[in-house]
Amino acid sequence: MTDLAYQATGRFWAELAACGMTDVVVSPGSRSTSLAVSARNQERLRVTVQLDERVAGFCALGMAKASGRPVALVCTSGTAAANYLPAVVEAHHSGVPLVVCTADRPPELRDAGAGQTIDQVKLYGDHVRWYAETPCDFDDPGYFTRLAVRAATAAGAGPDPGPVHLNWPFRKPLEPQGPVPEFNSTVGRPPVPVRPLVETDIEALRGMAGRRGLIVAGALDVDDAGAAAIVGFAEAAGWPVVADAGSQLRGRGSLVLDGAEGVLGRADLAPDVLVRIGGPPSNRAVIDFVDTCPASDRLLMDPRRRWEDPSLGWTAALASDPAVLLGAAAGQMTSAEDAWAVDWIEAAADAWDRTEAVLGSDDLLEPLLAATLLRALPSEVAVYASSSMPVRDVTSFWPPDALPRRVLVNRGANGIDGVVSSALGASLALGQPVVALVGDVALLHDIGGLLATSLSDADLTVVVPNNDGGGIFSLLPVAEGRSDIHFGELFHTPHGVGFGKLAEGLGVNYHRTGRADDLVQAITKASGATLIEVPIDHGTAIKQRKQLADLVE
User: What would the pLDDT profile of 86-129 be if each residue is shown by its tens digit?
Assistant: First the structure.
């Protein structure tokens, strides 16, 4: 007779599958045996095994970000669970639904010197939407059905999705004592995201009709229909859009501006109405503009109701989903005077021409690398851009002739860790090629993600501009040359690593190039696990970035 632990975990996974879950990421371990075995025997779930829990956490995050569905994580007890923390923090801040299942020792083994036993109670603190610890006796089967429904709902429904943590204490024996049971739920229903449209928000927008407005869009989790609704509003209102690459809006018409950062300070282009949607902007020029913009009406749209804006300079905070609200309001808006939009479009086009002259067309530095990738990739290929410089470069140097595409970013906590693993998860969830643009330090942070990619069947190409260290620090005041700061040792931290032998050892296809035309060919031919290294001369790159900064008006 199968023991009660497998009855409980079998019902749990069956109910999560009924609630719409399709993926579980498991790391090997003993204490989590019943969770892992029951998940693998639930025919509606796909189980992906990752050796490293830190890689697993970010892989699940990438899966959930790409699919929009909650993804579960399973690990054994002790420090294995602690390795999920960076991914849980990112999921918390960026609103990505995860169901984190950590196996644990039973209460009688805690604080008693038992191996792999740490305090896992509320291990992730306030970085989860909900926490529960399961009972050890497993004698109430209905509890685990209810547990799954509540976990799925807390993670993925409502205006603020994110991670939940379920801590599972198990007593021995951990192996099944009979056949592993199979369950199919007849109870649960997929939780439906609640993205309310607030009527007063439409009234607030209607009151802005005919005025000179500007939309600033940070990272947004919208599909093509949502992006079209936002752009449709901009066209109806005659309002230009300054959009991060992760907004999913770039390449969707002339009002979504390329080169806008070069003209944000112009007094003749100051708007009367400023609307911010999505996450905080990634680039400093846009952040500074938002902080200092003299618009008399400043609207912040945030369906998660977090109101994430350090400047606190908003005259109204609207709780509706931006795509729903702007789509509903589009037919009720009167366009601003034509000259307003035309002036922005022409100014941004001139700024891009000046920028492109500095970028050149052949020898690759980071800005031209980003522009070349965006031009070369088919629209169906998603891009995963690392924090630090890659996400800024993809935003600043998106060329006007680039196609619209899915761009994924980890901009919740803005960390550089786990980006290769996140991109791997996105490729597995989407079932299509993904190209990750990753700095050299970020890649060294996530070598385990590169190994996991080589062991998978994912089609992931990692493009790494290698400037031999933390190049972004050279753009900060700390780099001004004082000897007592020890800039090179403490900040730039040159590592001297070339990635060819590393790729060979991990079984990853490898190509090295410093020229744009060769990069295009390498990207076109890439398949499976591939690493493309672009050597960057740090001094030349910093000189070019300063030239580009001088173009900003």
Answer: 999 999 999 999 999 999 999 888 888 787 888 999 999 999 99
For residues 337, 338, 343 and 346, what is the CA-based torsion angle, rounded to 10 degrees?
Answer: 170
Give the model's pLDDT for residue 41.
Answer: 96
Residue 73 β-bridge partners: 25, 100
CB atoms within 10 A of CB 508: 20
Q: Rounded to whole angstroms, how far apart are CA atoms 424 and 461? A: 9
The radius of gyration of the chain's CA atoms, rounded to the nearest angstrom, is: 25
Over the range 152-165, which residues count as b (16 or more CB within 10 Å of their CB) and which as e? bbbbbbbbebbbbb
Helix (H) or strand (E) holding 461: strand 460-466
Distance CA 548, CA 550 (A): 5
Place of tokens 């385990």: 448
Q: Model confidence over 316-363: pLDDT tens digits?
A: 888 889 999 999 999 888 888 889 999 999 999 999 999 999 999 899
| 342 Cβ neighbours under 8 A, 6+ residues apart | none
Residue 274, strand partner residues? 214, 298
Q: Is 424 exposed, middle or buried (0-12, 13-18, 19+ CB in 10 A)?
A: buried
Cα–chain center distance at 419: 9
- Tell me how far apart the alpha carbons of residues 391 and 244 are, in angstroms, rounded to a whole number: 9
Tokens of 520: 């295009």
Q: Is this structure's pTM higher than 0.90?
A: yes
- Tell me the average pLDDT of the chain: 91
C-alpha distance across the termini of the chain, in Å: 75
User: Percent of the chain beyond pLDDT 70?
Assistant: 97
**Collapsing DSSP states into helix, strand and coil, what is residue 407?**
strand
**How far, rounded to the nearest angstrom, does the alpha carbon of residue 88 sit from its chain's CA centroid?**
12
Q: What is the pLDDT of residues 446-481, one digit of tens each?
A: 999 999 999 999 999 999 999 988 777 777 777 777
Using CA atoms, how far residue 458 sits from 48, 343, 449, 513, in Å, is 12, 45, 12, 23
Burial (0-12, 13-18, 19+ Cβ within 10 Å), 542? middle
pLDDT digits (tens, 9 = 90+) for 505-548: 999 999 999 999 999 999 999 999 999 999 999 899 999 999 99
Query: How many Cβ atoms are within 10 Å of 59's Cβ, its own excluded?
Result: 34
Phi, psi (deg, nearest 5) at residue 71: -125, 140
Alpha helices (H) in 194-277, listed in sequence order: 199-206, 224-237
User: What is d(CA 375, CA 199) in angstroms, rounded to the nearest whole number?
Assistant: 41
- Name the residue type at position 549: A
Binning pLDDT at 50, 70 and 90, where does residue 198 land?
A: confident
Instruction: Give 289's DSSP letter.
Output: H
Domains of the chain: 4-169 (3.40.50.970), 199-346 (3.40.50.1220), 360-550 (3.40.50.970)
Indicate the pLDDT class of residue 157, thresholds 50, 70 and 90.
Answer: confident
